[in-house]
Design a protein that fits this description.
This protein is 79% helix and 0% strand. By secondary structure, it is mainly alpha-helical. Helix 1 runs antiparallel to helix 2.
Length: 73
């Protein structure tokens, strides 16, 4: 593998890990908000958002070469 290719791969992995960490923080905030909501519509909306963010986190985790984070709700 060329140095340029390896450097690009490393940068992509690093960027993906940063994205995965940020998404994890958004997930934590959303889970906290969900815990305080009683409105069924808002709860469903937040659960949908959580599902999307978990999928995104999983994708960034695979690109970044990190292990998937727990799927606990």
């Amino acid at each position: 593998m060329t140095d340029v290719r390896r450097y690009t791969d490393l940068r992509l992995a690093q960027s993906s890990r940063v994205h995965a960490r940020l998404i994890e923080r958004f997930i934590e905030v959303t889970e906290s908000e969900l815990a305080g909501q009683s409105d069924p519509f808002v709860r469903e909306s937040l659960q949908d958002l959580l599902s999307t963010m978990r999928d995104d986190r999983r994708g960034y985790g695979m690109i970044g070469g990190v292990m998937a984070v727990s799927e606990a709700a």
